[in-house]
UniProtKB/TrEMBL annotation:
This is PX domain-containing protein. One of its GO terms (molecular function) is phosphatidylinositol binding. It comes from Mycteria americana. Belongs to the sorting nexin family. GO terms for cellular component: early endosome; phagophore assembly site. InterPro entries: AH/BAR_dom_sf, BAR_SNX7, PX_dom, PX_dom_sf, PX_SNX7.
Amino acid sequence: MEAEGRVPGPPLPPPSLGGGGGVEADADPPAGAPGAARGPLLAAEVLALDDEEDDLEVFSKDTSLAEVNSFSPSMPISPSSMINQYKFEDEPELRDLFITVDDPESHITAIETCITYRVVTKTSRGEFDSSEYEVRRRYQDFLWLKSKLEEAHPTLIIPPLPEKFIMKGMVERFSDEFIETRRKALHKFLNRIADHPTLTFNEDFKIFLTAQAWELSSHKKQGPGLLSRMGQTVRAVASSVRGGVKNRPEMFTEMNNYMETFSQKINVLDKIAHRIYKEEREYFNEMKEYGPIHTLWSASEEDIADSLKGVASCIDKCCKATEKRMAGLSENLLPILHEYVLYSEILMGVLKRRDQIQGELDSKVDALANKKTEKDLFSEEIGKLEDKVECANNALKADWDRWKQNMQCDMRSTFTNVAENNLRYYEECLAAWESFLASQTVDLHVEEDSEDRP
C-alpha cells in the first residue's frame, strides 16, 4: 500500500548556506535560511477521533487551509508553490532542501480507511545518500514526526498540524476539497520545518523524508517506552503542582503576557472571520436566486423589460464578484488566522516546558539549601540543570524572534490581500450599477426626445 523509495537524480548545485536563529546545545548545527489553501466551507458537526483514526483529520473544524506561502509576502500565492521564499535581510536566497506533498491516495480495507500522500524531496545536502526521494506517508506518520521534534527540541516552536477532527458524514468517502485541504496543510508543515535552521537537520525529519515504509515503522518502535513517557508526564505534573516559577527571567514573563493577549485576540478574529464568511455565503446564495426573478418578471412586463433585464445582469455580476471575494477570504484570511490560533496554543506549551526546566533547577537549589550532606552531588546536578536552562532560554529566545517576525509578515500580507480583494469587489459592483444607470439615462433621453417631436 505504501510503495516508496529513493529516486535517483542528477546532483543539484550546492547552494550557499547561511545561519539564523537560536540552537539548542545538543542540536545539530544550524544552516539554511529560515522561513516558513480551498473550496466552500463545510458546515457540519465536528467529531473527535481516536488515535487509530488520525488519518481522517482536517486542519479546521469548518474551514480548510489554503496553501499560503506565509513567509513570502511579496510573492504571488500559488497552490503549486513548493518553496517558502521569505528571507531575512542578511540571509541567502538559495536553499538546499525542497519538499512537496501531493498525489493523495485513498486506501480502503476491511479494518480501516486511510489516505496516503506522496512526499517528494530534492536536496543537495551531503548527509543524504541521494539527491531525490519519493515516499508515501499517512497522517499518523506526520503526527509521529511532530512528536519527535517536540521531544528533541522542547523549547523550539514546532509548526502546527491539522487538528484531530473530522466532518460528520465524511468517514467513508472524502470529498476532493477535504483531501486537498489536508494535503496543503501537510505540505506547509514540512516546508516550515525545512526552512527552520535547527529543525531541518533533525535526524527523525531526515528519516521521515527518506525511509521506506518498513524502515520508518521499524524506526518508530525504537522510541521511548511507555514507562519513559509516563515518567515525563509525572515530572510535568509535579512541576505544575509546585506552582509558579520563582526565578523566571522578565523576558519570559513578558512572553507569557504577550501570548495571553495574542491568543485572546487571534481567537476572536478567527471566530468573527468565520461568521463573516458564513453570512457572505448566505448572501451569495440569496443573490443567485434574486437575479433570475427579475429575468422571469421581464417576460410579463414589456414596458420595463429592458430595465428588469439590466438589473438581473447587474445582480449576476455582483454575484460573481461576491463568489471571488469569498474565495479570497477562504484562501487568504481564514487559514492564516486559524493557523495562528494553533500557533498560540503551541507557544503556550513551549513556554510551559521552559518553565518546567526552570522549575527543576529551582527545586534542586531549594533542596541544596536544606541539605547539609551530599552537597557535591547536588552541586553537580545544579550545574547540569543551569546549562539546560540556559540552552532552553537561548533556543526559545531565538525562535521567538523568528516566529514573531514571520507572524507580523504573515499578518501584513494577509490583511493587504483582504484589502485588495475588497477593493476589486466593490469596484466591480460599482462598475456594474454605474453602467446600468448610464443605460437608463440614455433610454430616458430617447423617450423624452420622441415625445417632444410633432
